[in-house]
Automatic annotation (TrEMBL):
Residues 8-170 form the DUF6879 domain. This is DUF6879 domain-containing protein. InterPro entries: DUF6879. It holds the Pfam family DUF6879. It comes from Streptomyces asiaticus subsp. ignotus.
C-alpha cells in the first residue's frame, strides 16, 4: 500500500468528496457496553441526543453536509441474531447522522457475487477492508487503492444495495 493513502477511517471520511459506502456481512460483532446494556433492557433516550450522539455520528453528519453520500448495506441471516436486532434498533442514530441504510436477508443473495470481508469504499478510489475473528473480534484493517479491487467491491456493493430493503421498511425477524 503506498504511503500516500491516509490510513485512518477519520482521514478517509474527511477527505471524501462524493461517496462513502459500507458493507457489513456478519451476524455478530465484538460485544460492547452499549450492546450489553441493551441486552439488559436499557434503551436509548432518543430525545437526549447528547446521550447517544458519538464522534462517529458527527463525522458522518459533517461528510453529508459537505455533499458526501454515505450508504451502508447490511446482509443478515434471518431470524436475526440479538446483535443484529440491537444494530437495527441503534441504526436510528446512523440515519439521524445522514447515512442511508439498507438491509438484505442473506437468503436473497444466492445469485450475487459478494466480497469475503466487510469494507468501506471512499469516492470509488480507496477501500478499507476489515478483518474479524470467527467470534467477531476486531483484528484490523487494510487500505488499498488498487483500481481493480476497488471496482470489483464497488460493483458488488451496488448489486447488494439495489436489492436491499431501506431501513425504515425492514422488519427484524
Amino acid at each position: 500500500m503506498p504511503s500516500s493513502i491516509p490510513t485512518s477511517f477519520d482521514e478517509q471520511l474527511a477527505n471524501a468528496k462524493r461517496s462513502a459506502v459500507h458493507l457489513e456481512m456478519r451476524d455478530t460483532y465484538y460485544s460492547n457496553p452499549r450492546f450489553e446494556a441493551w441486552q439488559k433492557g436499557e434503551r436509548v433516550n432518543w430525545d437526549d441526543r447528547a446521550s447517544w450522539w458519538r464522534p462517529f455520528h458527527q463525522d458522518i453528519a459533517d461528510a453529508v453536509a459537505r455533499g458526501v453520500v454515505v450508504r451502508r448495506a447490511r446482509i443478515v441471516s434471518e431470524p436475526v441474531s440479538d446483535y443484529i436486532r440491537w444494530e437495527h434498533y441503534q441504526t436510528r442514530a446512523n440515519v439521524e447522522a445522514g447515512e442511508q441504510v439498507r438491509w438484505l436477508p442473506r437468503r436473497r443473495t444466492a445469485d450475487l457475487l459478494m466480497p469475503g470481508c466487510d469494507f468501506w469504499i471512499f469516492d470509488n478510489q480507496v477501500i478499507r477492508v476489515h478483518d474479524f475473528s470467527g467470534t467477531g473480534g476486531w483484528l484490523g484493517e487494510e487500505f488499498f487503492d488498487d483500481r481493480a479491487l476497488v471496482e470489483l467491491n464497488a460493483s458488488a456493493f451496488e448489486d447488494i444495495w439495489e436489492r436491499a430493503v431501506p431501513h425504515d421498511q425492514y422488519e427484524v425477524r
